[in-house]
Amino acid sequence: MSANQTAVGLLLEELETPALCLDLEIFRGNIQRILSFLGRHKLQWRPHMKGQKAVELAQEAVRAGAIGVTCATLYEAEVFLQGGVQGILIAHQIVGGRKLMRLARLQRHAPVIAATDSLEHAQAMSRAALQEGVVIPVVMEVDVGMNRCGVPAGEPAVALAREIQKMRGLEWQGVMGWEGHALKPEVKDRAEVVKQALARLAETVVALEGAGISCPVVSASGSGTFLHAAGMAGLTEVQAGGAVFSDVSYRNWGLDYEFALTVITRVVSRPTSRRIVVDGGFKAMSTQHGMPLPLGLGRLQHMAFSAEHGVLELAQEDACPRVGDLVKFVPGYTDSTLCLHDEICVIRRGVLEAVWVIPGRTGRRVTAISAPVA
Ligand SMILES: Cc1ncc(COP(=O)(O)O)c(C=O)c1O
Question: What is the pTM of this model?
């Protein structure tokens, strides 16, 4: 049991630090903003949970109106299914014999859509499905310009789709793409890059339809891009996940949502009138993809993190905050911060209302669902 599991009902100020805290009302407000924006554009929402991982977060999204969740790993899919979440899409190629068998077994509980982008991989999925006596629903990942995974758009995509359609044990669902290259710092016109990327996906859908292959699922887009993706031809659903939290990175990418997720730390030392040392370092807050943003302090001259210490140098002398006071940080990137923690302290109006565990990181609390089901 963690330090804060026994703190439910206490004030935020009383929690043991460092602690990852979710402001429930802001989080729910962000979900409503996403849903009403997508609703206006007739798009469905299947939020990416790679940066969320907790079952309750997935349940909150689905309860509010998401059609399911997008996952990056089998672990995530397993814990969400176990938590009763349906409509799962794994936006990652599941490779390797043992993993493919786990993917196949999941289908006995509920359909879990899996991504593929090559003949070899689709054939391996087909073999696993046949061996387990199930059907695996598949989306074909199309490279929309990110140069990560994905079959090239257009004719190569049509050729692969034709093969997938012939394979026993697989059920064609449609296509997915991810325009993550639009978030590169050097990109000047993000809207234009998103437009071009999704045009590749749309052209592929048209080519597939021309070949008699319909695409009920056309899935793409993330929190840093979906505001530009709305209205793009062919798109049926959006994978934006981290927008439910917002953070420094998303702000820089143009999302003005309120910050729902913070890391609270406590001042442990004031060695000088300008230096503040807190009990959270890079093991509590990722510094990858941008530095965390401390709230409520004067202008900073410098900030550095070691493993368990955060060191902040104020530009001006100040007696506050004092030793024992809280310093709240907005993560530089929530995705790479949440995975450093085992649980989320759920705060409503300044009080700890619940503690949600984050099992999707390793799936270690899930065993039953991985076993064969009779
Ligand atoms: C396949 C895929 N879809 C969508 C996203 C966007 O995720 P988020 O909205 O959480 O930033 C990502 C991010 O890396 C991704 O890999």
Answer: 0.95
Q: Is 178 in the pocket of ligand 1 (CB under 6 A)?
A: yes
Check if the beta carbon of residue 138 is closer than 8 Å to that of residue 113.
Answer: yes
Structure-token match 């907005």, residue found: 330
Q: How confident is the model at residue 83 (pLDDT cuts 50, 70, 90)?
A: very high
Residue 2 — pLDDT band, cuts 50, 70, 90?
low
Q: Are strands 237-238 and 44-45 parallel, antiparallel or unpaired?
A: parallel
Q: Whose CA is nearest to atom 15 of ligand 1?
A: 178
- Listed in sequence order, the residues at least 6 apart from 50 whose beta carbon sits closer than 8 Å to its beta carbon are 70, 71, 72, 73, 76, 241, 335
Q: Is-contact 34 26, C-beta < 8 A?
A: no
Query: Which DSSP helix (H) or strand (E) runs through 172?
Result: strand 170-176
Distance (angstroms) between ligand 1 centre and the Cα of 359 equals 19
* Binding site membership of 241 for ligand 1 (Cβ less than 6 Å): yes
Domains of the chain: 3-19+257-361 (2.40.37.20), 87-240 (3.20.20.10)
Is the omega angle on the peptide bond into residue 18 within 30 degrees of 0, that is, cis? yes
Q: Cα–Cα distances in Å, from 55 out to 237, 251, 288, 344?
A: 21, 26, 25, 11
Ligand 1 in contact with 239 (CB < 6 A)? yes
Q: Please state the rounded mean pLDDT for residues 184-189.
A: 95
Say if residue 214's pLDDT is above 50.
yes
Helices (H), 211-326: 226-229, 248-252
Q: How large is the average pLDDT for residues 118-140?
A: 98
Overall residue count recorded for the chain in this entry: 374
240 lines ligand 1 (CB under 6 A): yes
When pLDDT is averaged across residues 277-291 and rounded to a whole number, the result is 95
Supply the mean pLDDT for the chain.
95
C-alpha atoms less than 13 angstroms from C-alpha of 146 in its C-beta half-sphere: 21
Query: Cβ atoms within 10 A of the Cβ of 184, count?
Result: 10
363 lines ligand 1 (CB under 6 A): no
Supply the residue whose CA is at minimum distance from atom 16 of ligand 1: 178
Neighbours of 247 (CB within 10 A): 31
* Predicted local confidence at residue 361, as pLDDT: 66
